Amino acid sequence: MTGMSPVPRAMPYAQTITLANGASVAFAQAGSGEPILLVHGSLCDYRYWEPQLAPLASTHRVLSLSLGHYFPTRELNRALPFSWNAHVQQIAAFIDEVVCEPAHVVAHSRGAYLAFHLARCFPDRLLSVTLADPGGAVQGSDAPGAQAAGKVNTLRARAVALIEQGEVDAGLALFVDSVSRPGSWAHSPYGFKAMARDNAHTLQPQIAERMPAFAAHEAGAIMVPVLLVGGEKSPSIFHRNIEWLHQHIDGACQMTITGASHGMNLAHPRAFNRAVLDFVDAHGRTRSSGKGI
């Protein structure tokens, strides 16, 4: 996530619903046709995908989801656990109860980590999965990679401490810059900063959740079509994740958004949207049930 472009001025009204499992989620939708479900990452919500909603909705039914605990559902989910596994279950339930048919899932950062496990555990809910700069770590990381991840985790713990001390913008600046580039928070527009402030409370439980590393046997079991999208200037940890997933997910496609960092869908929306549409159209129900483009 990074604030490289204004975040919504014209998003549709978000509906809030309670799923059968008791979790409350919110979503905006537009268009008609084969469904595309957009899943946000850290500090974000359904508003993150504003540059994607209208372009993708010109040919598809597009749903942009706010996971439980994220804006605007914080109060509704206070009694429920915040965890990656709970969020994977929420996405699957949302597809069952709201989308009501298999969907193309497009997910970013922590959301892409969730979508990886969605593809592993609920392949029947999916037509394809696009993982943009997937967060997390890979099993058996080399020493330099582990050291880099340790440094990032230290920065993020400091960011949480600042937020808990009331220095919200200082903590958000540390986190956003750690997953993008130095100075990203300072150059973020008001809309993005407002969205991140609305979700600042999610950073502490996210840092505490300790998501398991990607495992080779799990990646090898994924059978739905997968597109891996990276930002050319994204931090090295995301490049490592994409390369590893490309090696371990049979038939996965890979592409890079030139000139972009972690928020490639915001910085270069036309290139990102074109990549998504080309991929999902190649893997729609009427086109192909195989993997690869």
Summarize the structure in words.
This protein has 293 residues and is of the alpha/beta class. 41% of the residues lie in helices and 16% in strands. It has an 8-stranded mixed β-sheet, sandwiched between helices. Helix 1 packs across helix 11, helix 2 packs across helix 3 and helix 4 runs antiparallel to helix 5.
Mean pLDDT: 90
Number of strands: 8
Radius of gyration: 17 Å
Quickly give the structural class: alpha/beta
Distance between the termini: 27 Å
Total number of helices: 11
| Major beta sheet summary | 8 strands, mixed
Q: How would you describe the oligomerization state of the chains in this entry? A: single chain
Strand line-up of the largest beta sheet: 1-2-4-3-5-6-7-8
Low-confidence stretches: 1-9, 288-293
* SSE pattern, N- to C-terminal: EEEHEHEHEHHHHHEHEHH
Strand content: 15-25%
Shape: globular
Helix content percent band: 40-55%
How are the SSEs ordered, and which strands pair?
Layout: E1 15-18, E2 24-30, E3 35-39, H1 50-57, E4 61-66, H2 84-99, E5 103-108, H3 110-121, E6 126-132, H4 143-164, H5 168-179, H6 190-198, H7 203-208, H8 216-220, E7 226-231, H9 236-248, E8 253-257, H10 264-267, H11 269-282
Parallel strand pairs: 3-4, 3-5, 5-6, 6-7, 7-8
Antiparallel strand pairs: 1-2, 2-4
Helix pairs in contact: 1-11, 2-3, 4-5
Q: What keyword list fits this structure?
A:
disordered C terminus; 293 residues; single chain; 41% helix; 11 helices
In short, what is this structure?
The protein has helices spanning 50-57, 84-99, 110-121, 143-164, 168-179, 190-198, 203-208, 216-220, 236-248, 264-267, 269-282, and strands at 15-18, 24-30, 35-39, 61-66, 103-108, 126-132, 226-231, 253-257. It has 293 residues and is of the alpha/beta class. Mean pLDDT is 90; it is low at 1-9 and 288-293.
